[in-house]
UniProtKB/TrEMBL annotation:
Matches recorded under InterPro entries: LysR_HTH_N (IPR000847), LysR_subst-bd (IPR005119), WH-like_DNA-bd_sf (IPR036388), WH_DNA-bd_sf (IPR036390)
CDD domains: PBP2_LTTR_like_6 (cd08423)
Organism lineage: Bacteria, Bacillati, Actinomycetota, Actinomycetes, Kitasatosporales
Membrane-spanning intervals of the chain: none
Residue stretches making up the HTH lysR-type domain: 4-61
Pfam families xref list: HTH_1, LysR_substrate
Tagged with keyword Cell cycle: no
Source species, domain of life: Bacteria
Protein name: LysR family transcriptional regulator
Family: Belongs to the LysR transcriptional regulatory family.
């Protein structure tokens, strides 16, 4: 295969544009003899004559013009590569992979992706739903670049492998069946529901969060039914089978659903804390920094909505 030397092709291109070896040397900060030597070597590499004498000057041969026609496509592609690489270095291009738990995807990740698509369309965000244990396994293995989880199930802040970034304190509201005696009670407290049958997961983070919140209010909840998905939990609440704590991120689109009343616990509002984590040091990368900024913006917008 013919050997194409980009640097020598650029010299040939400059000679075509400048007209003389001397002008080419001045433009490229080279000596005229160096220009001539490089072009002689290029001709040998390509196996064709590139220059011919024209009085005291030289002119490009037809073969040289043919070579440059193809070289222009190469130069254009290199310009595009330089521009894309520059965008990558500024965090405006490239691919970044995010793992996030189920309720964080529509509440935080999707708004962040929408914002980034508008501001940095060259940045390709790939999203994978994963609960905390899997998300951090993926992060450790280098299969994702950023993981969202609840703070209670994130690695310790002292873990040298990760950097944690707080995103959101998500309030937990209580879901009651419509017509429940406490559905309209003023100043509802979690302790007021101590005698109620409760619905929450049999294990995992939501079981721990519900149990911990109730114990902090002074009672151990009676688990009447077990479910892990919010659709199933709220369907059971609507059927009058029990009450449940529901994160506001998960209930935002269901607040006015028929059969379920969402009540804010005014005096003892429990919260779950959402954090992002990256491999330590990666937060300084421009693409990761842009995604973290977009997630913070989405979290701030959600907190504003929650306060209104």
């Amino acid at each position: 295969m013919t050997e194409w030397d980009i640097k020598k092709l650029q010299i040939l291109r400059t000679l075509r544009d400048r007209g003389t070896v001397t002008a080419t040397a001045e433009a490229l900060l080279m000596t005229p003899s160096a220009v001539s030597q490089q072009l002689t070597n290029l001709a040998k590499q390509l196996g064709v004559r590139l220059l011919e004498a024209q009085g005291r000057r030289v002119r490009l041969t037809d073969a040289a013009h043919l070579v440059l026609r193809h070289a222009e496509a190469v130069f254009a592609q290199l310009e595009r590569a330089d521009a894309e690489l520059d965008g990558y270095l500024r965090g405006e291009a490239g691919q970044l992979r995010v793992a996030a738990f189920s309720t964080a995807v529509p509440a935080l990740v999707v708004p962040a992706v929408r914002q980034l698509r508008t501001a940095h369309p060259g940045l390709d965000i790939r999203v994978r739903e994963a609960e905390a244990a899997e998300a951090y396994e993926l992060l450790t293995a280098g299969e994702v670049d950023l993981a969202l989880s609840l703070a209670a199930h994130a690695p310790s802040v002292r873990d040298p492998k990760f950097s944690r970034v707080p995103l959101l304190a998500d309030p937990l509201d209580v879901a009651l069946p419509a017509g429940h005696p406490l559905a309209e009670a003023p100043g509802l407290r979690l302790a007021d529901l101590a005698a109620e049958p409760w619905i929450f997961g049999g294990s995992g983070p939501w079981s721990e969060i519900t149990t911990a919140a109730c114990e902090a209010a002074g009672f151990v909840p009676e688990q009447a039914h077990s479910a892990s998905g919010w659709t199933a939990i709220l369907a059971m609440v609507e059927a009058g089978m029990g009450v449940a704590l529901v994160p506001r991120m998960a209930s935002a689109d269901r607040r006015n659903g028929a059969g379920v009343v969402m009540r804010v616990l005014s005096a003892d509002q429990p919260r779950r804390h959402v954090v992002a984590a990256v491999r330590r040091g990666a937060e300084e990368g421009p693409a990761v920094a842009r995604v973290l900024a977009a997630l913070r913006q989405a979290a701030a917008a959600r907190e504003t909505v929650q306060q209104n």
